[in-house]
Fold:
Amino acid sequence: MREPGAGVLVLGAGDWGRNLIRNFHDLEALSGICEINPQLLEEARTTYPEVPVWESLDQALGERNFEALAIATPAVTHYALARQALEAGFPVFLEKPMALSSEESRHLVEISRRHRRTLMVGHLPLFMPAIEELKDVLEARTLGEIFYLQARRVNLGRVRKHENVLWSLAPHDVAVFLYLLGEMPTEVNCFGQAWLQPGIEDLVFLELRFPGNLIAAAQFSWLAPELERRLTVVGRKGMAVVDELNPHNRLRITDRRFDPVKGLTISGTDRFPQLASEQPLARECRHFLHCVRTGKRPRSGGILGHQVVQVLEAATNSLHDGGTWKALEENNFDRPLSTTACGP
Structure:
């Protein structure tokens, strides 16, 4: 039984907000729903009649009948809503991207540290059991020196009207790249094309250069004939493939490789690790609650969310500059923020 004043207020009851609402409800941690659209608000009230609903964040904050907030509103509203919640003293779960500029994302990190409140960003792939297992594989150096990572996230739809495919889809894989490699790229390159709507790219190719000649590349499109969500990691001693759409073998690890000394391809064996069956979103919501209640640093905390925004910002500059390489500031991500505290 949930204690009074405990649980999460979910802001936004639209497409993704419904999923957060359902998962926090299943975890017995849904304390309220806030939605400005009257139709969506009534739908939420009908589905969860025992849960308080509000039309605005100001109304909800006035009652303070919750311990944290989860924000699933349009990206353009993320900064203002998260700032208001953090400054009111609440931990915040913020859907990706956490902001539309690195200045805004950095400010949110500073606020969360100043108020000593958890700030977590909804980078869902980091909670996929296949990605968790792959992280362990890389840390154990099972694949040896890593040469490159390659991601492909394409489908036919959903076409956005207010953001291009880079900002819509790339946060997923950029977050995975940074999480798996544990460092920032030194340079970013991006090029693409818009066909359906002027100035809103339907297809982009992104390339990140990391220290040690390591490359991470990705293709994103909502104008492709088939749905594909795949990540390949190639190392000196082996390779790994994560296929998000494979219901049985989402992670394949192989020691098949090329021997440059012998000039031969070495045939190897495939291994398919046993993975947890719990849905990633349930794991993500549970992780947020754990961090709020224990003070543990989130896996996808504000620092990582800020780094993702910085990469996207540099990629956007490259895209608008004909695909030229854009350098990222050395040590830019480790320099002290305005305050020192626990949190992101």
About this structure: The longest helix spans residues 302-320. Residues 333-342 have pLDDT under 50 and may be disordered.
